[in-house]
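G., the chain you wanted modeled:
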Amino acid sequence: MRDRDWDVTRRAVGSLSVWIGTAALFAPRWIAGTLGVRPDAARDDVALPLLVRLGAARNIAMGAALLVTPAPQARRTTEVALLLTALDAAAVWTSRATGDVRPRSAVLSGLVLALASYGAARWHRR
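Predicted structure as tokens:
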């Protein structure tokens, strides 16, 4: 991957992570419902806003790291982001197995993990 390709990808993913994290920070119940958490849980669970906000803070931090990391040091950032994405997917798939989230959440998590894996593999082949 050329440095320009990496720069465009890094800025796009970093910006998206910051924006999604910011939305989740200020509207955790709405984000949870949109992503497929059961409506009653998204509405009534008292721990949900805290958990979503913790994930949002991490998303903002990772997005900011991508925005400020120059191409030569980006390898570690992409590895950490991929690991966190895999852990997120595992949590969603576990919740799906117990019926706590809708199928679309599992599909979305798999798609995000696949795209992150593709991006990391493409960057590391460089």
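The mean pLDDT is 82.

Shout if anything looks off.
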